[in-house]
Here is the input.
Amino acid sequence: MGRATRKPRSSRAAGSPKVHRPTPQAPAARVPATPAGTPPVAQLPPDPASAEAVLVLHYTRLARLAYTVLPSSLDRHRRVLAAHALVQRALPNRLPDLLRTRQPGVPAPRRSSEGTSAPIDPAYAHLRATVLSAALREAPQRPGLLPQVWGLRLFPASSGTEGLALERELAGLSPAERAAYALLTLEELSPASAGELLRVAGVEDPDGALRRAEALGAAHSAQALLAPDFDPCTVHARPTDLLRRRRRLRGTAAAAVLAVAAVVAAALTLPGGGGPTAAPLPTVRPGSEVARAVAAVVRVPDDTWRHTARIDFTAWPARGDQLHDQALIARALTLWSSAGQLQARRGLVHAEPGTTSAPPVQSPRLLWAGRVDGASVVLLDDGSQLARYTRPDRPTGSDGEQLDLSRSDESDVTTAGAVLLRSTAAGDRFLIAPWVDTVQLRDLRAPNTPARDLAPVDGLTPEVAAPPAQGCASWPVLQLRSSSVIAEHHAFLLTDLGGITAAHLTFTPPPQSGPANYPREATGSAALVDWGRLGCSLPALRGQDVKSVNAWEFADQQLPENQGTAAWTCTRADRWDGTGSAATQFLPPTNDPAATATTTGTQTQGRACSRYEQYVVADTWWRSAAGRSYLLAAGSRHVVSMATQGGLSTPATAVPSRTMALPVPARPQAAVTVTGALDTGQTARSLG
Here is the structure.
C-alpha cells in the first residue's frame, strides 16, 4: 500500500504574490512529523545531537516567537539580543531525559490544511514551550545573559505601515496575549492547543488571552507577523556610541566592559529633557571620534537647489550662526544616535506618529545650527527623517532640552517648503526653503483680507502668530511663492499643525463636465472662501504629523424653497507615514464671514476621498427658514442615484440624481442610511 501524502500548508492566499521567506518559515521546512500511528509524546525522544539539529533547523522560527512575546518596553536592539538568548538557552543538557516525561500541552498539534491535526516533533515542542515560558516570565535585563555586540545597534528591517501598525497593537497587549497571537498566527495552532500550551507556561487566563489574540488576528493578515519587522535573524546594524566611545580600549577585558557600561550609563542619566538644567555639551578634541563624527556631517552648497531636479530637503543648504559650533552639533548627533533608549527611559526624545527613533540611516545633512528666540537649535536630515534639537538658554518644565524626530521621505517643493524651528508664547519661527522667493502671512478664516509680507533673515521668518490653542476665530497660514528658477513657479499655503514640518493645504474644485479635477493650490478665491469655513476642522489634526490636507468640493446642491446653493466638501488629511483620515462637511450659503462648516461624517483611518477611493456620499439634516425639515444628501462623480433605508416613516426612497432633498415631518429617532448607486454598479455610503 502506498504511503499517503499530505499537501503542504501555505499561508499565502490564492492569487496573492509570492514573497520569499527564510527557509524556517517556508512550508518545506515545517517541523517534521512523527511516524503515522505513534503518539507524539510517547515516541522515543531523539538524542541530544538530533535535538540540537531541530533547534538549528527552526532557529529563526523560535527567535521570531520569542521576539514577538518579549515586552515592548525593551528597545528593538535588546529585544533582538534577548530573543537570541532565550532560544540559545532553551536546549537543556539532558534533553532525552526531559522528553521521556509526558508534559501536558507539549504536543500542541497544529491544524492541517484539511482540518486534521498534524503530529509534531517532540523535541521542537519542548523547545517551543521552553522559549515561550522564558519569554513570558522574564524580560532579560542583565547584559551578561545576552549575546555581546560592541559598537553596533541591531534592529529588524521595516516592511511599511502594516508592520508598524501591528507592532503598535502588540505593544498594547499583555505578554500572554502576545504569546496567544504568536501561537495562533506564527505556529498555526488551534485555539485549544494554544490554550493548553499557555496554561503549561503559567498563564492564568488563557481563554481571555486567546480572545484578544483572535480579535487582533481578524484585523491583520497572517503575513504581517511574517514580515521583516518581527524577524530578529534578519537585522540592520547601525553604529551606537561613536561620540562617546574611547578611541582605544585600555586595560583588561573586565575593565573595558566597565568603561563601556559607564559611558552608556552616563549617556542615559544626563540631566535635561524638561528638567531645570540642560546636559553639558561634549568636549570636542581635534582628531577625536567626536570631531570626526561632526566632520562627517554633510553640508550642501547654497546653490544646489538651482542645479538639481530633486527639490526636497536634500537640496537645503546649511544655515545659521552656529554652523561651526562642534560641541552643539555633537550633542544633537549623540541624542539622535541614542534616541531609542532616551525615548523609552527619559522622555528627552519625541518622535512624531509613524516615526521611528532609530539612529540616522546615513551621514546626516546639517540644515540649520543657530540661535532662535533664546535657544540654540540644530536641524538635521538623513533623507528619511528630520531631527530638530533644541537647547534653551534657560530650560523650564515646558521648554527644556529636546530632540524631535519627524519623517521627511518623499518630500517635495511644497511639503519641504518650511520647517518649524521654534515655537514660543511670542509665536512661531519658520525656516523657509531656499527656493522660496516670497513669504507672506494670511488669516485662513479671513479669506477677503490680503496677505501681508514677511521678511525672512537667512531663511528664518520673524515671529508669526501661532494657531490658537483654543477655538478657531483666526488661523494663520504661510503663503509662499517659489522662485522663477523652478519650472512650477507658483504660490502655496502651509500651516502649523504641531509638527516639525508645516502642513500643505490644497483644494479640489467642484466637478464639471469633462475630466475629473485634481488637487491644486488653495490660493484662488474659491479655495480661500471654502477654506475660510473649513479652517475650524484643522485643530482636530494637531499632533498627527500631517503632511497635507486637501479640501475637495465634491458636489453643489440647490436647496429647497429657493434658499440658495450649498456646497459639500470632503477634507482629506494625509500623514507622512502614508496613513490618513477624512471628514465630509456641509456648507450652506451664508453672508457671515465667521460661519463654519458642519461635519457630517468622519473616517479616522482609511483612504476615503483620496485618489484610491474617489467615491463619496454625505447626508445631513437641514431646516429651512420657514421651519421645514429636510434630509439632504449628495454624492460625488459617478453617483447616478441615491436611496434611503430605515428610520423614516415613509418607504425607502430612491432619487435618480447625485443630490437629494427629502422633506420629513421631523428628524426621526432611528438611524437613516443613505447610499449612492454608481455607474460602475458599485454602492457608495456616507462616512462614519
In short: The first helix runs from residue 48 to 57. The longest strand covers residues 546-558.
